[in-house]
């Protein structure tokens, strides 16, 4: 048992008023708000006290973020002047995948470090595309303790990027004949990566690297983004190099524990060159997650690489495909291909793209990943609204293009990951699974929409006549 | 015979208006400054939308939830056209956009508020049978009935009862008048007045309510014969005495809202009263462990059941579990441990606060679990010896009927009762002072927003409205007892399993773009 | 409530002109209700003043604050730090509020931003009407709850003048003849006899005639 | 009716004779000749001359002074006094002063509101209303005390008049108000100009039915119209006036230069009808800035000689 | 026109007349810098919002609302209109041209009219950007 892993969270309030979900529509002409029973004064959540502040900067009028939608102001106003609308800015927040609801929850987690909790049952659709058409199992009577109280085993979320040795060889004198490969165990099946699709700069990378260090995980980084400010965290970085440029970054390789090489035909030929720079280094190859990814993985697994890193797009979709498949299917394909070839145990698989919520982490692992990376989620933890203005060369509404407080930034990220880890523990605990390693590929402990429909409704209603989710 | 006559004494319906000054309606009516207070609208409207009190010349703000909307246009009393000043405007109420969610859309909420207010099905055109979730119950429909089979009997002659003890083990053969009873909500999670109101409603309706795992407040004692004592993993407030009070003792292994997790009550809600009941410290968060630490097998489980049976010789035993992949095995195991009632709680339900990740992702929806368990119990030959209860995301009368047709004997209702008490499903049950609407709160000020008689009558009204719907379904299929409906999945269709022409015969799945 | 209306911007500009730092102080009671001096009006006034001076090429620093009631020391005190930071106060409270402020803050010029008009009610959205003149000698019981001192242009006590027609006052066709209303109401109450009796001249001593009034509640003083 | 004053008007009215009074507005200036000229015109054709008090709230020579000039000429003035401009102190002192100058009749009025006059910005007083003024004069006359109850050295034996408008709303209340004025001490009542004879008849009938005409002399107001324009103006713009549409038509129906003639004709017809009405004890001619026509009307109505 | 710099226009609009995508597109103007403020109902333009927009440097403020009678909240656009009128008079009073503020009713979902409208407002206010107003010598010294 490794030592108890605990993520210290600490409230880190947002710097800017987050885009609220609801806004009240009220006609002030009907009321000056000086009534003794004024619902603005009596709001249970005191959301109206700062109401004027929202209007005080014309940079952008902000609506009420804190409104909890209890409808009491609407229903109790003596003049009945209140109505409610959805904040138009909330409506257009993010995109279909990174929807406003997800952004809101990520902000909440980065702010508080807490697991989002709500009442009144599940509010969403019965089933939805992607990871939302899959449920995880639970066990009625077995649940490992999540925090190791009373000396019991706790749930272990570690994973390894180490080199996999299928067997040990011994000398005749029973001493170990094979070299013991370096072991790199990370406490959480999650790595960091800042997607170049959006903004990358030093102000963002430093707090993230610091958070990675605090959490004991690693962050992928392109050599062109590395600045001296990142040097204290060199040990927590994975440089993403190419066949062409790795020689220029020898120093970086020397300081790292893992290095990633972009996939290219014959890439295996440079492995030794890198190992010569730093013998202990663990090698990872970055592969686009497209239709050839599975066969490429099978090929590369035989070349002595330690881990593979697959890049899906920012929505977790297959690359270069007319009707792309989702991460769920893609992970499954790669994993099963390696299982089929009996080489799954030899390699570690990391997947990037579309990991937006804690459950995605668990579900991707169930599908067969060893670990995933958080990308946009990290930026969102720093209040990014995914508005895309930076792509158009416009200013950032939350000033991520300017220096930010490093302590605050890393606290927000640590909070987010702390909340994610807690949620992962909840899921694993409910399943009665004690180790993240055991979760990998364990589809038997999950339920898939198509299977449930077939097994439970098939006998009643016959054959499904619609494809997909219907 | 005695049972039947008892059942036919239906509780009285009494109008219980909203606790709030302004009601929310599907339509909104605005009266402009052009109004000359002539009072014609108040004279015209037969639905009581426009009220005008004696000696107060101005009509009051319209009672919007009573307005039937644009379909009124054809009537000669259509206020919008008749107003001499053209001072009235009718619109769809834009606030509905911000109300409700995929499972409980705004109209379903409004309809249930109306049922709880009047005891009748709404006059206003509201969709209250189907949600917007795009699957499960929302895609399942009753088959088009054969009009020749229609059974013309009155509501009073209908048998909607539910037998809880089918084991014939000498314990009481308890029969409820409704095919449903209400779910566990703990002392501490809810305003005591609301809880007591539920118990009073259960007595009036001859059904049951459940303590949840927060102990047994003495306010329940007058209604003890209608209150289930829950024994959950935290064993909060469980005493021999409280087990002896109860006609049914429920073991809660898991709950649908947070399958695989124990219950939890955040510190804010642990007031001195709650702490005393639960024998704990004021303000400290309470987490129930998961699972029962003394239960690791069916044998362990049986030991517990035997213990309860010994403590209360006339009590029935219910076992509440969630919906893992092997839910059918769990159900059978519970039967062998001696349970009278097997209660399966699906993943999408729940009333109290739970981690969002658990509500959404863990365990399967109840729609899948019901046929699975029903079938397995049949195969094991014990289907007729247990009372199979389903719950978790069963929202309305139609869902209840569908669940029964899928194979359950009855269901447990939670959220709908809260909606009857004017819950808006804002989901903030645990934040700050708790429910801003005074339902799920232990805050002294907020808790005063509900009176026992209000809670009691609103719940009675809602079930009486539901009863009308059930009776109509039974009549359409020529049945006189809801027991005839159990497991009749042949009466159901699922839209995704029909070809297009067949599907066109049924009401389509509501699909609105929602922002939740 | 006390009804007031904002002074024209030109007048306010003139009042404020000599100062570089001005606190605009609103009052959250009556003047808020009649849209003359609550938080919103303070914000509008501040913004408008800044713009106005910008147009004139002058600089002015405007601070905004609103207290619950400017006529009570307890609430005025909240504004003390802000007053200390500014050269003058533009008060959007009624005359009583302005004077209470003047009494408390001796060295700060106080500029009234509103004209205090009357004690009135919100008759309908956007319309405030005067209904009481604070005469100190209420006879509403006789007049069926409608005050002829205030609502009759001639303060007539013994019946309407000859100028009222169709229930409207001769002074303004928009004003109801108070006597018309009184008669209507007393007829409905069956108390028309009230009007047959002679109402003696009013004792104006309780009103402004005796100089500023005082109300002393001995029972509230220990 | 107490016979206290030495007013000639009172004597005529109480003798049962049909009385005629006429109105005279003081000048907007200080020249007493204007008053005297108007006095000459009225001399011999009226019983008393009614002098207005800043009528329509336009500043003029004071009623007291103008009355004093008429007294000097041997005419009998009726001094109008409005409560708009004076508080109770000034009112009482002016009444005593007027009496000392030989003014024996007073008409107690509230007065037109100042918003219609030359000084709309003025502060009105309205300390007491006309009802209370009537009572005050009566108390002074009969009890010899002022409002404070102080015993006066000699009391003003004034003949007290008050106004009534039978045409204002609310109609039903008008009789109550008349009764109240009589109760307060009015000896005679001067009405608003009568054009709408139907409504006036109705009002008179109510007054007769209530027995009020036994207690008070009612002088009906009569104003000759000069033109159709004037008729229309009075109908539309003057508060409390009721000019029936048929009269306006009639005035408009004749050529412009013939209009004054038609106006006089209407006036004479009205007087003839008024004389037939029970309870009408006289007429009050308000020939506004047209005093020269008064003699012609009185003669035409067959009411000469006067007094 | 201000030397080299763009004229700034702030547009408040009800989302029912003008969707998010449209406003982003329209924001890419040539000589005009447009700033869009989306509102769920045009009635949420408080008078202070309009003034603050000018304070923040807008040369003109345009309020786009639905056609009269089409407001979801029945009277929201009418109220917006009244407020715009009031603020226009206030602007006149303080010596800024009230024409800098304008309100237009647009048919829902039709954004093609927006550009000509904004051009129209700019034509109305002439060519004096707000910034140059403050460069003028104080009144009396001119």
How are the elements arranged and paired?
The complex is a heteropentamer of chains A (470), B (516), C (222), D (307) and E (142).
Chain A: E1 22-26, H1 39-42, H2 51-56, H3 72-76, E2 82-86, H4 88-91, H5 100-112, E3 117-118, E4 134-136, E5 159-160, E6 185-186, E7 190-193, H6 202-215, E8 219-221, E9 237-241, H7 250-255, E10 258-262, H8 271-277, E11 282-288, H9 293-300, E12 307-311, H10 327-340, E13 348-352, H11 358-367, E14 371-374, H12 376-381, H13 406-431, H14 436-439, E15 446-448, H15 449-461
Helix pairs in contact in A: 5-13, 6-13, 9-10, 11-13
Chain B: H1 2-8, E1 27-31, H2 40-44, H3 79-82, E2 88-92, H4 106-118, E3 140-142, E4 162-163, E5 175-176, E6 180-182, H5 192-205, E7 209-210, E8 227-232, H6 240-245, E9 248-252, E10 264-265, H7 272-278, E11 286-287, H8 298-311, E12 316-321, H9 327-337, E13 341-345, E14 354-355, H10 356-361, H11 366-379, E15 387-391, H12 397-406, E16 410-413, H13 415-420, H14 444-447, H15 452-476, E17 492-494, H16 500-503
Parallel strand pairs in B: 6-16, 7-8, 8-9, 9-12, 12-13, 13-15, 15-16
Antiparallel strand pairs in B: 1-2, 3-17, 4-5, 10-11
Chain E: E1 7-14, H1 20-26, E2 32-39, H2 47-55, E3 60-65, H3 76-93, E4 101-105, H4 114-125, H5 130-135
Parallel strand pairs in E: 1-2, 1-3, 3-4
Annotation keywords:
heteropentamer, A: 470 residues, alpha/beta, Alpha-Beta Plaits, TIM Barrel, 2 domains, eight-stranded parallel barrel, two-stranded antiparallel sheet, 15 helices, 30% helix, globular, B: 516 residues, two-stranded antiparallel ribbon, 16 helices, 17 strands, disordered N terminus
């Amino acid at each position: 048992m490794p030592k108890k892993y605990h993520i210290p969270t600490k409230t880190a309030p947002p710097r800017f008023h987050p885009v609220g979900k609801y806004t009240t529509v009220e006609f002030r002409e009907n009321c000056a708000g000086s009534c003794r029973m004024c619902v603005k004064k009596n709001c249970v959540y005191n959301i109206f006290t700062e109401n004027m502040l929202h209007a005080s900067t014309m940079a952008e009028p902000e609506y009420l973020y804190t409104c909890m939608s209890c409808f009491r102001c609407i229903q109790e106003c003596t003049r009945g002047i209140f109505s409610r609308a959805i904040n138009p800015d909330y409506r257009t927040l993010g995109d279909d995948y990174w929807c406003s609801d997800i952004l809101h929850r990520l902000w909440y987690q980065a702010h508080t470090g807490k697991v989002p909790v709500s009442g009144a049952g599940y509010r969403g659709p019965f089933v939805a595309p992607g990871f939302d058409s899959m449920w995880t199992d639970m066990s009625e009577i077995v649940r490992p303790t999540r925090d190791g109280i009373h000396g019991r085993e706790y749930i272990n979320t570690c994973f390894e990027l180490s080199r996999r040795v299928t067997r040990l060889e011994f000398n005749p004198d029973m001493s170990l004949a094979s070299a013991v490969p370096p072991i790199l165990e990370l406490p959480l099946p999650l790595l960091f990566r800042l997607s170049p699709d959006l903004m990358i700069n030093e102000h963002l990378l430093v707090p993230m690297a610091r958070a990675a260090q605090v959490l004991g995980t690693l962050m992928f980084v392109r050599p062109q983004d590395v600045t001296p400010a990142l040097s204290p965290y060199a040990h927590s970085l994975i440089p993403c190099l190419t066949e062409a440029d790795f020689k220029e970054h020898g120093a970086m390789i020397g300081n790292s524990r893992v290095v990633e090489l972009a996939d290219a035909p014959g890439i295996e030929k440079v492995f030794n060159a890198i190992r010569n720079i730093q013998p202990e280094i663990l090698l990872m190859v970055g592969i686009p997650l497209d239709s050839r990814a599975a066969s490429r993985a099978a090929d590369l697994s035989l070349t002595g690489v330690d881990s593979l890193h697959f890049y899906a797009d920012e929505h977790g979709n297959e690359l270069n495909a007319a009707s792309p498949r989702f991460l769920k299917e893609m992970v499954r394909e790669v994993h099963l291909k390696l299982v089929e070839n009996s080489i799954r145990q030899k390699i570690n698989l990391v997947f990037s793209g579309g990991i937006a919520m804690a459950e995605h982490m668990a579900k991707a692992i169930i599908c067969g990943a060893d670990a995933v990376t958080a990308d946009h989620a990290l930026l969102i933890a720093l209040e990014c609204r995914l508005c895309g203005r930076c792509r158009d060369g416009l200013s950032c509404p939350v000033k991520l293009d300017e220096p930010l407080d490093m302590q605050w930034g890393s606290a927000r990220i640590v909070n987010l990951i702390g909340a994610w880890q807690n949620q992962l523990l909840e899921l694993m605990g409910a399943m009665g699974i004690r180790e993240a390693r055991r979760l990998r590929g364990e589809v038997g402990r999950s339920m898939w929409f198509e299977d449930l429909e077939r097994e439970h409704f098939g006998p009643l209603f016959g054959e499904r006549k619609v494809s997909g989710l219907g | 015979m005695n049972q039947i006559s008892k059942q036919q004494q239906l509780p009285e319906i009494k109008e219980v208006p909203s606790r709030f000054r302004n009601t929310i309606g599907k339509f909104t009516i605005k009266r402009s400054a052009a109004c000359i207070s002539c009072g014609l609208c108040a004279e015209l409207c037969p639905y009581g939308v426009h009220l005008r009190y004696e000696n107060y010349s101005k009509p009051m703000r319209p009672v919007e939830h009573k307005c039937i909307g644009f379909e009124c246009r054809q009537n000669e009393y259509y206020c919008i056209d008749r107003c001499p000043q053209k001072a009235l405007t009718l619109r769809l109420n834009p606030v509905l956009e911000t109300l409700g969610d995929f499972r409980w859309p705004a109209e379903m909420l409004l309809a249930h508020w109306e049922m709880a207010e009047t005891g009748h099905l709404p006059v206003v055109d509201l969709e209250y049978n189907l949600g917007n979730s795009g699957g499960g119950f929302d895609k399942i429909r009753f088959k088009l009935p054969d009009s020749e089979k229609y059974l013309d009997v009155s509501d009073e002659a209908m048998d909607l009862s539910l037998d809880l003890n089918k084991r014939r083990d000498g314990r009481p053969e308890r029969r409820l008048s409704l095919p449903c009873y209400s779910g566990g909500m703990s002392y501490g999670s809810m305003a005591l007045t609301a809880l007591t109101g539920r118990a009073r409603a259960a007595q009036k309706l001859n059904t049951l309510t459940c303590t949840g795992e927060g102990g047994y407040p003495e306010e329940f004692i007058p209604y003890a014969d209608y209150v289930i004592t829950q024994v959950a993993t935290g064993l909060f407030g469980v005493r021999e005495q409280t087990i002896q009070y109860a006609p049914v003792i429920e073991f809660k292994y898991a709950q649908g809202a947070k399958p695989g997790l124990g219950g939890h009550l955040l510190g804010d809600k642990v007031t001195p009263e709650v702490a005393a009941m639960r024998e704990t410290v004021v303000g400290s968060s309470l987490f129930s462990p998961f699972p029962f630490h003394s239960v690791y097998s069916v044998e362990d489980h049986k030991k517990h059941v035997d213990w309860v049976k010994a403590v209360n010789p006339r009590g029935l035993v219910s076992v509440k579990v969630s919906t893992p992949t092997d839910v059918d095995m769990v159900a059978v195991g519970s039967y062998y441990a001696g349970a009278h009632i097997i209660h399966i709680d699906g993943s999408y339900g729940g009333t109290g606060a739970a981690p969002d990740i658990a509500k959404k992702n863990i365990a399967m929806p109840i729609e899948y679990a019901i046929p699975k368990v029903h079938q397995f119990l049949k195969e094991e030959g014990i289907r007729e010896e247990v009372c199979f209860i389903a719950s978790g995301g069963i929202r309305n009368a139609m869902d209840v009927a569908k669940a029964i047709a899928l194979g359950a004997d009855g269901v447990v209702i939670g959220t709908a009762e809260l909606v009857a008490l004017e819950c808006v499903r804002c989901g903030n049950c645990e934040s700050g002072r708790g429910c801003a609407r005074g339902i799920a709160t232990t805050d002294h000020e907020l808790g005063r927003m509900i009176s026992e008689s209000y809670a009691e009558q609103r719940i009675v009204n809602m079930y009486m409205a539901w009863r009308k719907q059930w009776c109509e379904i039974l009549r359409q299929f020529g049945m006189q007892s809801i027991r005839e409906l159990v497991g009749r999945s042949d009466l159901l269709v699922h839209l995704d399993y029909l070809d297009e022409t067949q599907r066109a015969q049924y009401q389509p799945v509501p699909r609105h773009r929602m922002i939740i | 409530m006390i009804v007031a209306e904002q002074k024209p911007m030109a007048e306010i500009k003139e009042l404020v002109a000599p100062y570089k730092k001005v606190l605009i102080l609103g009052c959250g009671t009556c003047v808020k209700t009649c849209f003359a001096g609550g938080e919103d009006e303070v914000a509008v006034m501040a913004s408008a003043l800044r713009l106005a001076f910008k147009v004139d090429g002058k600089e002015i620093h405007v601070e905004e604050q609103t207290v619950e009631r400017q006529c009570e020391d307890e609430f005025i005190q909240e504004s003390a730090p802000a007053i200390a930071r500014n050269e003058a106060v533009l008060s959007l409270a009624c005359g009583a509020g302005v004077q209470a402020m003047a009494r408390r803050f001796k060295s700060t010029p106080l500029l009234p931003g509103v004209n205090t008009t009357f004690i009135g009610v919100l008759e309908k959205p956007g319309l405030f009407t005067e209904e009481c003149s604070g005469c100190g000698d209420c006879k509403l019981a006789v007049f069926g709850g409608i005050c002829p001192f205030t609502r009759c242009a001639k303060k007539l006590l013994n019946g309407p003048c000859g100028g009222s027609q169709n229930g409207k006052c001769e002074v303004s066709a928009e004003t109801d003849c108070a006597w018309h209303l009184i008669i209507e109401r007393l007829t409905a109450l069956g108390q028309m006899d009230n009007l047959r009796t002679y109402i003696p001249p009013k004792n104006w001593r309780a009103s402004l005639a005796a100089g500023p009034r005082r109300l002393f509640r001995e029972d509230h003083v220990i | 009716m107490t016979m206290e004053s030495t007013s000639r008007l009172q004597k005529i009215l109480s003798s049962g004779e049909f009385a005629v009074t006429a109105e005279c507005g003081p000048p907007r200036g200080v020249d007493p000749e204007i008053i005297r000229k108007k006095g000459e015109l009225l001399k011999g054709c009226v019983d008393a001359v009614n002098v207005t008090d800043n009528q329509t709230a336009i500043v003029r020579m004071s009623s007291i002074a103008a009355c004093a000039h008429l007294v000097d000429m041997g005419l009998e003035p009726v001094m109008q006094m409005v409560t708009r401009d004076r508080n109770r102190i000034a009112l009482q002192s002016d009444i005593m002063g007027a009496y000392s100058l030989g003014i024996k009749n007073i008409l107690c009025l509230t007065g037109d509101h100042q918003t219609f006059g030359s000084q709309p910005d003025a502060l009105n007083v309205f300390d007491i209303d006309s009802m209370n003024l009537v009572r005050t004069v009566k108390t002074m006359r009969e009890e010899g005390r002022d409002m404070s109850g102080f015993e006066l050295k000699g009391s003003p034996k004034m003949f007290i008049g008050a106004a009534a408008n039978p045409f204002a709303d609310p109609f039903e209340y008008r009789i109550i108000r008349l009764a109240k004025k009589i109760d307060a001490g009015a000896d005679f009542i001067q009405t608003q100009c009568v054009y709408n004879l139907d409504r006036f008849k109705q009002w008179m009938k109510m007054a007769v039915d209530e027995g009020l005409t036994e207690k008070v002399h009612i002088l009906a107001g009569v104003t000759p119209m000069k033109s159709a324009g004037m008729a229309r103006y009075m109908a539309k713009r003057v508060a409390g006036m009721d000019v029936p549409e048929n009269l306006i038509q009639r005035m408009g129906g004749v050529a412009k230069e013939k209009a004054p003639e038609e106006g006089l004709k209407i006036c004479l017809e009205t007087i003839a009808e008024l004389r037939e009405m029970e309870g009408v004890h006289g007429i009050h001619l308000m020939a506004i800035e047209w005093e020269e026509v008064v003699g012609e009307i009185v003669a035409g109505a067959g009411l000469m000689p006067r007094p | 026109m201000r030397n080299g710099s763009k004229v700034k226009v702030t547009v408040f609009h009800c989302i029912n007349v003008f969707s998010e995508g449209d406003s982003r597109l329209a924001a890419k103007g040539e000589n005009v810098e447009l700033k869009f403020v989306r509102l769920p109902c045009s009635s949420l333009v408080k008078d202070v919002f309009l003034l603050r927009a000018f304070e923040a440097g807008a040369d003109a403020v345009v309020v786009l609302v639905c056609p009269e009678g089409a407001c979801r909240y029945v009277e929201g656009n009418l109220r917006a209109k009244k407020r715009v009128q009031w603020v226009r008079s206030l602007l006149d009073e303080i010596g800024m041209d009230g024409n800098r503020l304008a309100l237009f009713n647009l048919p829902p979902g039709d954004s093609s009219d927006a550009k000509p409208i904004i051009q129209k407002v700019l034509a109305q206010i002439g060519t004096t950007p707000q910034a140059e107003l403050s460069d003028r010598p104080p009144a009396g010294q001119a």
